[in-house]
Here is the input.
Amino acid sequence: MIRTPERMELVDRVAQLGPQFAARSIEIDTNSQFPYQNWADLADAGLLSLVIPEEAGGLGADFIGYALVSEELARHCPSTALTFNMHTATMLLTGQIADDMTLTPEHRMMLEENRAHLREGVVRHQKIHSQPFSEGQAAGATAGYSTIATPVDGGYLVNGRKIFASLSGAADFHNVVCVVEGDPRIRLLGMPAGAEGVTIEGEWDALGMRGTDSRNLRMNDVFVPAENEWIPPGLFDQAAHRWPYFYMTLSFSFLGLMRAILDDTAEYLIGDGGPGARREHPIKQQGWAEMNLLYEQAQGLAYRVLAESGVDPSEAAVRRAWASMVTTMENTPKMASIAVRVAGGRSMLRPSRIEQHYRDARCGATMLPWSVEVCLGRLGRTGLFVDENEIPA
Here is the structure.
């Protein structure tokens, strides 16, 4: 069962914030500004600790609970949902996912100690975390990282550059994926945003998802204390193969965006509800039907994947996860295009929620590591080769 009472209680908590988030959405998009007030509201509602266990002071949501919350959040402000994903990704990786991994007693102790430090910062001090992966190289989840962490007394010195580092100016910690020279295991280091040597480069003026503040992050001999190595070396690599659902979290925000498109199109069609309402037009009804089909296809497959999500999925289950990513990220812009057609010329004039959705919808297909191109490439190979291990994580 996906929609348990416990999960839906958390969704309702987000829904209560929805009207004020939606009211701010246009201004956030127009000014390409980070949604600071929305994040303050999320913090006040305890949602920064959404997937932190109750015994550690959090709300105790699991992966499925987060997916439902993300969908509802994006229904009101997609940029807020997408940035919230970057924060929650670290909490999931250090929590439910890490608990499912095979670790030595030494590494298990390291995990417990370091994530206790991380969780205390979020629960007690409402610290915001980002998780910049992309460097513009290989598209795989465990490849393409040239950011180097050099061991020194008490921690690491980090050098490198990340692109599309969401929450660039808002995060308290940039959780950097990097490697140590001579050691292939991936590290996840919590780099304090205010540390010496941290530089945020350029301006953020994107087509869509304009509130994410995804500028470039440059690191020059940045010291990261050892206690900020949130997971043991090699856990990230293991999780990429054994818990691949982690890489579909972005799609939940786009499911929510599809809900937003439906909401705003329905509002246009119903109008004042009188006898001349646009909902009476057969052509517009057909467009509305097409939009609902696109949403049901994406949500139905996503929820099936969620129902079987967990550690060590079968090859068929992973294929469904890739298929779900493609379906959601491709159906969202299709739906937005139909919405513009149904709503007509006024929907293209700013400020317009439908015009904003049209631009936001086009951003999902490119997002790594499970972009549409990557997922299609893997789906195009699976089932045609004897050794499925040839397909990267």
Notes: The first helix runs from residue 5 to 31. Residues 197 and 220 are 5 Å apart (CA to CA).
